[in-house]
Fold these 4 entries.
Entry 1:
Amino acid sequence: MRVAVDAAGGDKGPDVVVAGAVAGARRFGVGLLLAGPESDVRRALSRVDLSGVDYEVRDAPDLIAMDESPAQAVRRKTRSGISVALDAVKRGEAGAMVSAGNSGAVMAAALMMLGRIPGVDRPAIASPLPSRQGYSLVLDLGAVTDPKPQSLVQFAQMGTVYAQRVMGIVNPTVGLLSNGEEATKGNALVQEAHALLAVAPGINFHGNVEGRDIPRGVVDVIVTDGFTGNVALKVAEGAAALVGEAIRQELTSSLLNKMAAAILKPAFARAKKRIDYAETGGALLLGTNGVVVIAHGRSNVTAMQNAIGVGARAHNGGVTDAIAAALLELQSAVA
């Protein structure tokens, strides 16, 4: 199995993307199809150890900037790394696609080139966020800012399949993000979605959960609209950075603290790893007819390495086919 990578996507350029992709290919036992300006990709490849790595370089000279209009850029720049990598997935030459580039362009191109899974109205960006219990899957993190209530039911179904197939949870619990636990809390979207989720077959619905319940790990899957989910994600990233910086400042504030920090360094390193976005690697775009991984624009080598793992696990877990089967079963039950 190969993972197609948008080698020019991301804030840090091909050197970081390629180094991370190669490390991921070696760690997760997959091949690579690297799409980007060929000279740049080969220059980046010359700086890493390629022993034992199956790879192919495919020229993709068009570059889509982070601030470009996604739909227009995808239509005009048909030889971008995003489009070439997605084309490989569409043709069956790769089992997954990874990009740290313009996320809007990735979503637009994925919908144009791969299409939606039958029964999916809108796709969702899903990613595990760290919690006391390990991780809680949150979706949507930005694909659909104004979904209909029925879309949140589909998000719950897709999240359930992901939690089963990738996270290994047999009967994952699902929560609806709201401003209170009571069924009467939330805006019109939340209240209507709550009523639908409460009776939806195939979903182990826990009820409403609050923002604080995400790091507490109260449920396995949390569904919300893309606007709220993206805000929650950015707050979580900022909070993790703040905690890390506050601890660093305190541990270096005196000689005694520095000595204590030296003793506790392994424990702090493990704690940092638990909340580091790079350890997650990337978010899956669930609902498209193929495995698409959206990595953070500022992804480092570790993040890109783990993004390859996200794609490999989703492909090997048959997430796309399982979502299609689950939604078909859900439609049959409702009919």
Entry 2:
Amino acid sequence: MIRWTLSNAAGVISVSNSLGKAIADLGFPEDRVRIIGNGIDPARFSPVDPFQARTRLNLPQTGPIVVSVGALIPRKGFHFLIPALAQIAPRFPGLRLYVLGEGEYRAKLEALARKLGIQDRVFLPGNIPNEELRFWYSASTVSCLVSSREGWPNVLQESLACGTPVVATNLWGAPEVIVSPDLGLLVEQNVEAIASALDVALSKSWDRAAIARHAGERTWEVVAKELNDYLSTIISNWHGGLTAAS
């Protein structure tokens, strides 16, 4: 069905270059694929004072916090993240990990934390309303996404818009969001690489205001304009082709 749809499409929009290449590999001309990444809502994702954010969420005011947002499923890679946290925990007193999401992997992740002896550092609060996520990002020292695949990971963009640096697996659309080491660190999906990156990220002094400014520039209004321009071009070319044919 995907191949049929592509063969009958006047144009294709992809949210990332990696997905665009996958579309081209199915036979659609690569030069007719337009890459339009997702945006953020600055009214919903913007920095909150960390002290106020932690107070609102009833989190400790001291100690580093890592937040990771995603469904509790194998693809999200939490079974790599939790052991990575265990490796660096002795270096960071009070370090806590909050995994925001729900899913079939909950019991296994809880068991993994207990096995590693860090059940007092790993918390699974469940699903969090989208409008509440900015408080979690703002309260956190680092945001982490270690999935095996993502098209355009919105959670990275949203974290950055709140001024929170990220650690993410260097796969699919993540490198197109983390375009500078001033925004975060890209790693391989294995425990040692994730642990090393978290160690660096938690020890580094980040310019959170600059991070927020960068991410805040790509609003949904910017995305809508890019989409409108592309659709206008497609429609113009289509009508032109009909005129020429007639």
Entry 3:
Amino acid sequence: MSLRPTRAAAAIAATLAAAALAGCGGAQSGDPASDSQTLTIYSGRNEALVEPLLDRLEEEVGMPVEVRYAATAELAAQLLEEGEGTDADLFFSQDAGALGALKNADRLAELPQAVLDRVPEHYRDADGRWVATSARARVLGYDPEAAPEVAEFTGIDQVLDERYRGKLGFAPTNASFQSFVTALRVDRGDEGARQWLEDFAALDPQAFDNNIAVLDAIEAGQVSIGLINHYYWYERVAEKGEDGVAARIRFLASDDPGALVNVAGVGVLEGSDMAEEAAAAAEFLLSDEAQQYFADETAEYPVVDGITSTAHDLVPLSELSGYVVDLNALDSLEETLAMLDEVGLT
């Protein structure tokens, strides 16, 4: 579903900016330089996570790189407002929906085929306007003592059981949760998605600021099941060892929107004077070096075949059963926000 630029800006800003305030967006930094010999990147990825990688990128493109860090929502909205007058050459997004909104507003240029061919077709725009750089899977975190049956769950409907009243955790302002709801709308239509949300809300789920807090609540026995992303659990296991982590995670079946695999990705801004250098930056983010960084440092899934983590026991993305959806369709966040508000889950 396409949004007009002004609606897309409002939708993304309202949605993902809230996630940033909850600790899931990027940190603020100074304004980018406008020097024509500087590659300017707007990054919705967290500065602490990707700064070392972007420092290396400067060496690869052979010119100064200036980065503006902020929430993906805020930056996408700004890019829509700035139009052709933007200083940005490359947009580094934490979410496919924001990339889809910019693509639909004709703000992203076509990437070189050699860059697109680095990843499977599902992890790039069909028209070549953006490409994924890493992926994250939605999972169920759970307490194996309180809810051992979750180890056999295959679908998101299975959490809608009276036995979990008051024992479900979620992060309503998190962009990944909202993308899951958008995927639910794409999969079941608005009526089906609304019914699931109403049934979920009727069980008095506990709302938390972010996925980390949801995982903490599982660990503390405050909730039995939490809707989170996979890498929060892997990062905790890397820190404490699996025996030191009480929670477990369950990947759902590939035909279920609860198994959504969303992506971070990049697009070159239409009209950039640095289009060639920006494309080179995109290519670097898909290099073996950068993909290994994502796999080891952020516990995300690399999107280039043949890269596996040396720090986390991640199943290769090519072997992961994830829910398949046109990731551009996740741009309909305005409708998702309205529905969440109507059912009382904001």
Entry 4:
Amino acid sequence: MAVSAGLGRRRPSPWRWIRALVAVAVLWTAGAMPVPAVAQSEDRPFDVAARAAVLLEVQTGAVLYAQNPNEAIAPASLAKIMTMLLALEDVDAGRASLTDEALVSEGAWQLAGRGRPGGVSAMFLQVGERVTLEELLYGIGVVSGNDASLALAEHLAGNEQAFVQRMNARAAELGMASTHFVDSHGLSPDAYTTAADMARLAAYFVRTQPDGLVYSSLPEYTYAGITQPNRNGLVVRDNRVTGLKTGYLGVAGYHLVATAEAGEMSLVAAVLGAASDPDRERIALELLNYGFAHFRTVTPAEDLAAASLRVYKGAVDQVAVRPATRPRVTVPVDDVDNLRWELALPGHLEAPLAEGQRVGELKAVLADDELASFEVVTAAGVERGGFFKILFDTIRLFFAGLFGRL
């Protein structure tokens, strides 16, 4: 059984380069992150004044803009996204608690410019202090505290070297093949990453740790009587922006990974190597505005995404089926009416069936391109029927097959 649904007549889209980018869209699950190929188009709609930039949709993985996405650049404080992610994953796994208290070492204190305001980005921790993990996360996310990052790393892993090994191992698991961390805070010029990898990391953070965005969304943060503004000014200027992290090194320039939400869309703009703080914010906002204006994330009608199938030889005669994950794709605004959803299912099923068993697929098709395919699974298990039910259905299937009615 194949079902096709679309709105309006099919017409070719004039945005060929957009098609090429959107065609790499895939569904990213919360537990794993298949890595979509990052398109490198010579026909971008515009250039930005940064060494590299990537705009992608968080839930579908559609790359909407790419400029030098795979250029190796020192991550600077963008490394702290991984530091925060590991801390939040440890909390989720029960290995740590937000109320745990980290002991501030002399090494962490030295990263605060020896406790004097005016040094490097810091929370201004003092040697021997005990600070909760929650406070450290705010110190990292809002004011980009290098001292907070080191204190967190030492608490979670015993020492920074062990923590950095975890950072790189997690990066490999997430498909960040062009990233190598050297420290927990990003001060080393020897670390490297790409705009593509940082966009993927931020998207994974948003999908799996949405509550963690609170640590980078406050307009300001006060610790030990020192109030500092959020280094990402977009969280104050634009209510769509939800985080996530800034960065700066002389060898790399000014970075900003900004996350934002509007309607069904959730975007990440990764800007690396801008000339100044105002420039990185202007470029990130330009990319976000472009994404929200020119693209839409679309889901199929509920009655198309779910159905039921006839079951033979089972305790029941019908079973509901549904997509294993929420189906959605991101397409250019002009192509929303041309998108077709094609549901491919067998004519019937035979028991026994397990809950979540794959039985078909739902495809999103635009013109001749299959943008994404989603598994369709059983919504419940079906046990084998009794002797007479199996015998009766076996006879029915035999004659149905004989007369071509299956």
